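Complex 351.
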Amino acid sequence: MTYIVKPKFHHPDLPKNALGYTHRDYEGSISTLCAGCGHDSISAAIIEACFELAIEPHRVAKLSGIGCSSKTPTYFLGNSHGFNSVHGRMPSVLTGANLANKDLIYMGVSGDGDSASIGFGQFAHSIRRGVNMVYIVENNGVYGLTKGQFSATSDKGSKSKYGAINSDSAIDMIGIALQLGATFVARGFSGDKAQLVPLIKAAINHHGAAFIDCISPCVAFNNHAGSTKSFDYVREHNETVNRLDVMVEHEPITADYAPGTLELVTQHDGSVLRLRKLAPHYDPSDRIAAMTYLQERAAAGEIVTGLLYVDPQGQDLHDYLNTVSTPLNQLGTKDLVPGNAALQKLNESLR
Ligand SMILES: Cc1ncc(C[n+]2csc(CCOP(=O)(O)OP(=O)(O)O)c2C)c(N)n1
Ligand code: SF4
Ligand SMILES: [Mg+2]
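Predicted structure with magnesium ion bound:
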């Protein structure tokens, strides 16, 4: 993997968070992606979200597959745990790590090729199992790393840089995540950091499978007229259903909002999501209505962004499996080898 180490020095007056860390403590190596690539903006949003939440970097595990998008964990959270896996296999590696140590914050970063083609099954099973993670697909509608072939999220009828028309139907990752039971589903745009940072913060605070489909234009291969993942196209067709602020502790609501346009959602960990409704009738607590709405707007050529669905009291894989409260990797021999009598008893109970 190519990377350029960043110099460690920084200005002494850089703002510090509650832990006394600056943004520099959440950065990684210097990016080697193309200048202007949407993926770099998503890395910057992840850095900002972790800085604002004052997360201890050693509490984060970032995992990825293969692709330009999957290279990005090298460019953020350089003091966190990292695992760059095989193409499309990030979800199973993440699931295994999460089962072994549920105390970490798991961040899976992937691409549309990585998650909607070779890793589609892996993506689906990690979502339906409710793995406690933030799963971000940096969606540019092409295989950027291998020079711009259509991916499974390329829209039917969209045009490649070299003029070919895509004849295959697109996979909508949001629709699939909703159908599979994800308890937090959002769509962001790399060109809208003000929307993306709170979405990532809320996803980090969410308990359960949190999925963010982030449209992230590939400036080298998919940013031309005829593409439906270009900066211009997304800006022109973006329909934002809500705007989000995340409050970790209760803060008074100071801004003025028209009645019915503000909604407060308290998540499992006590964080409060303050939702400003831009589409007044959109209800992010109604999974089926969300699926219908997204299909309708997609048919009208719109790209719906915002917090699309949340179950604030979501459960995760460990809740479903009823694992012990101690992370499994911290259990000692006494717990793991309970002795012959306990084994006999267990065997008897299964006869
Ligand atoms: C098993 C396997 N098959 C194919 C490849 C070639 N390959 C590398 S990256 C990639 C697609 C990447 O696309 P995406 O996940 O969308 O990432 P992007 O580069 O667009 O960010 C492919 C097909 C590979 N590395 N391994
Ligand atoms: S090829 Fe596309 S996805 Fe890859 S770094 Fe360049 S702009 Fe980004
Ligand atoms: Mg891609």
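The first helix runs from residue 38 to 52.
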